[in-house]
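Make up an example, fold above all:
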Amino acid sequence: MLKYSQATNYLLESTKILNLLKANKIMAISSTIPRSLFLLIVLTLSGFFCIAQADATEIINQAIEKGNSKTLSTYFNTTLELVFPDNEGSYSKTQATVLAHEFFTRYPPTTFTIKHSGRSADQSLFCLGEYKSKGTLFRTYYLCREQNEKLIIFQLHFEKK
């Protein structure tokens, strides 16, 4: 079953695709195919992308929850902005992987809770959460964008509360 935010994303993506099709006059296809069947095909195909994004964010969230820097780093951009308690700046994917591993080693996860997620004005996906390690609480934030049909992390922040 789709979550409310996933269903909303699904509808937004479907609307974008329909508008794109209208703009490119691809809707002429619908004259040979009944409109309801054409619409069903478009909505189904657009849904696959939304579900793939939802799956990717679930994998990212689980990687953070388990402190798994290896899985998390598969979603890192070639360079990304990192904010950790002792490190802040722009790092290569390799450097970011090492720093994430050091962070998870120093602050092993107790819990990770998503507080809010959605899309920004430029259609980037963001996620805000709380990461707890023993007695230390971190406000967590990551920003993803689609790149070559894959969700990529461009920013990752763990800030002590």
User: Anything to note?
Assistant: The chain has one domain: 4-160.
